[in-house]
Amino acid sequence: MSQTVDRALSILPLLAEGPADLGQVADRLGVHKSTALRLLRTLHEHGFVYRQSDQRYRLGARLFALAQQAVENLDVREIAHPHLVALNEKCGHTVHLAVHEENEVLYIDKVESRYPVRMYSRIGKPVAITVAAVAKLLLADLPEPERRALAEKLDYPRYTSRSTHDATAFLAELAKVREQGWATDLGGHEESINCVAAPVRGADGRLVAAMSVSAPNVVVSAGELLGLLPLVRRTADAISREYSGTAVPPSVTDPAEEARTP
Questions:
Q1: CA-based nearest residue to 225, from 119, 83, 85, 94
Q2: CA dihedral for 249, 255, 261, 262, sign (positive or negative)
Q3: Strand partners, 53
Q4: Which one of 17, 51, 117, 178 has the fewest CB atoms closer than 10 angstroms to its CB?
């Protein structure tokens, strides 16, 4: 198996040099054409290579998409981290950064609370997709047909009495989040934990990540946490501007809301 994987991966740098036919691939790998063809067919099925009309193979669009996605995710974490730290220093609560990948929402960065009560979230761990504030933001940004198809496929665990209970309720929540531009999880995953989240956008206006502040009720009430929303949104805007290299319009424009910010 390892030899097969090694051979398949060896095809990619070959095609990076330019299109190649079956014979050229077989010669480079030192294998029979039938073996090379099996490897190429598998790579083709996954979109990593593409067979042209002249029967030569080139790198496929899926490979470029994955590479771009990986670069973007790494970049957004690197750019966001100093902002997350600064936000944590101001409010003292746990700060997360999350992305949407392959029908999962994953934490890619976390800054711990300064308080003794800690959250059990981990970098690389999927979030509770039907209740987490960051998940609501990221999924709300999907086109409507994709949102509906995903919602119909999901399970809806009853983590607490406030958990989203079915696809209809979830889609309604996503529509609300999409309209208001921010999201909350007020005891939907754990009764004692509340969370507010804001979007990080790229130059095209689409979400590339979502960031959040979370805290337990014993440290701060849900209402007090919601009071941090303007600060959270300004932090997300700052990350968006730096990430995209453009002047992203500020999310917070209400003077009264500004006045409530610590």
A1: 94
A2: positive
A3: none
A4: 17
